[in-house]
Amino acid sequence: MPDRMLQFVRLPQETPPKRDVATRRADFDEIYRRFDIPHASAQASRCSQCGVPFCSIHCPLSNHIPDWLKLTAEGRLEEAYEVSSATNNFPEICGRICPQDRLCEGNCVIEKGFESVTIGAVERFITDTAFERGWVRPARPRAELGGSVGIIGAGPAGLAAAEQLRRLGYAVHVYDRHDRVGGLMIYGIPNFKLEKEIVLRRRRLLEEAGIVFHTGVDVGPGLSFADLRARHDAVLIATGVYVARDIGGPGAGLPGIVPALSYLIASNRTGLGDTVPGFAEGTLDARGKDVVVIGGGDTAMDCVRTAVRQGAASVRCLYRRDRANMPGSMREVRNAEEEGVEFVWLSAPEAFLGDARVSGVRAVRMHLGLPDASGRQSVEPVEGSHFSLPADLVVKALGFDPEDLPGAFGEDALAVSRWGTVKVDHRSFMTSLPGVFAAGDIVRGASLVVWAIRDGRDAAAQMHAWMRQNAAVQNAAMQVAAE
Ligand code: FAD
Ligand code: SF4
Ligand code: SF4
């Protein structure tokens, strides 16, 4: 091992510089700058090259992290890119938006005494550099296999599967109801975490590989699921989860109370240059408003930080548990606090105030009780602790459930779990319908981009195995018939 590794004892952790708060509050550009070559190399050299790398074990893609860190430390960036892209279809995206504190970096063994290696920032640096230097090439196959695959959903699960299957030699068609490719990476996650050009750049590359995108096609009402199955040898369902969990109570139907995704889609579309109904009229724009966001996950963090950038008068996040029990990434909470968001912990809404439209939220303080069956502490209201917050825009960010897919697809034989997620055989990724596979959030419930990529890759490998076996069986049958 070269001397230049194990530098964590000498070199402190450095993350890429963050833009200062005043400038980043005023635009939607990404907040982290990129490492330059000396910093990337120095930070990569902090890795102690563990024999059992816990970082890789806790990366959903089992990335060969110590290998590409070492190559980066040695300045062998093209090789670092080759190793990094061998296990991850979109490393520059994961480097930007994975909650590293809960995954690779949170499990880096030097984390306890010395602060973890900045794995995500190095991963992003490697692939951004590879794009700039022309090392990223479309996944063109060596030979066409003749089979055809239909993928429903152009989010990370569908796109990762599409790239893997195209590389193997299949004709790949991806159908999406939206007009742009990327799923939640284009319309959910805001530009200040993931600039849209990064996603559009991937689309161009996938098209260059020969993948055909059919945007604006809503499978079910637009194109029947049966027709789609008839067009292809195998189908992948990667439709994500989009039914927003709602909140009841007095005043819950007042104008000015909006679901998180409608709010974020309007903001992202506006940033992409679209004219969005509701945005210009102010229904989905926080400018000058007192904003209350309800929820404590990553979606809520994206909403509060979007509201700050839109020029809201005040932005509060109402969450019924405390900071330690929040599902959202701590890094995003810290970013939101720096940008001026006020967190109202241990508080839940009881009613929405106002006549013609919402003007406030009445809330009650909560305290954490005993753990429930899932091990999570229950929350109980504190008697007589009511208070009100002014709000002329309330954003509900309470999570998402799957839509009724058997109903939407007119296919009762498609088995779903009691939560509505599509049931698959966990080894073959096949649903209850032969030749129909599923991956991503529609199988696991609302999760992460990195898990969607993992599922898409695994499903693609299983689809390939199934199509080969099917073709072999058909060939054998034809041979028997001919004899
Ligand atoms: P999706 O990305 O949801 O893509 C599904 C696609 O299917 C969509 O494009 C949809 O239009 C299409 N579709 C659905 N039904 C049909 C149909 N009938 N016909 C045609 N097309 C259809 N994860 C992270 O790792 N880091 C983050 O920082 C992060 N932030 C997030 C912020 C927000 C606001 C949200 C909502 C999620 C965030 N996530 C984050 C989660 C992450 O985006 C998802 O886990 C991931 O995108 C799931 O990928 P998927 O491919 O399964 O589905
Ligand atoms: Fe870490 Fe995500 Fe990269 Fe894996 S994909 S190494 S979890 S940033
Ligand atoms: Fe390097 Fe940390 Fe991974 Fe060990 S756990 S190999 S120190 S990044």
Care to describe what's here?
The protein has 483 residues and is an alpha/beta fold. The protein folds into three domains: 7-132, Fumarate Reductase Iron-sulfur Protein, Chain B, domain 2, CATH 1.10.1060; 148-241 and 402-482, FAD/NAD(P)-binding domain, CATH 3.50.50.60; 275-396, FAD/NAD(P)-binding domain (3-Layer(bba) Sandwich), CATH 3.50.50. It is built from 18 helices and 15 strands. Helix 9 (156-168) links the parallel strand 1 and strand 2. Helix 4 packs antiparallel against helix 5 (77-87). It is globular and about 85 Å long. Bound molecules: flavin-adenine dinucleotide and iron/sulfur cluster (2 copies).
What is the strand and helix layout of this fold?
Elements: H1 21-25, H2 37-44, H3 54-57, H4 65-73, H5 77-87, H6 91-97, H7 111-114, H8 119-132, E1 148-152, H9 156-168, E2 171-176, H10 184-187, H11 196-208, E3 212-215, H12 225-231, E4 234-237, E5 243-244, E6 257-259, H13 260-271, E7 290-294, H14 298-309, E8 314-318, H15 330-338, E9 342-344, E10 347-354, E11 358-371, E12 377-390, E13 393-396, E14 400-401, H16 405-409, E15 436-438, H17 441-444, H18 449-482
Parallel strand pairs: 1-2, 1-4, 2-3, 4-15, 6-13, 7-8, 7-13, 8-9
Antiparallel strand pairs: 5-14, 10-11, 11-12
Helix pairs in contact: 2-4, 2-8, 4-5, 4-8, 5-8, 6-8, 9-18, 13-14, 14-15
The structure holds flavin-adenine dinucleotide (FAD) and iron/sulfur cluster (2 copies).
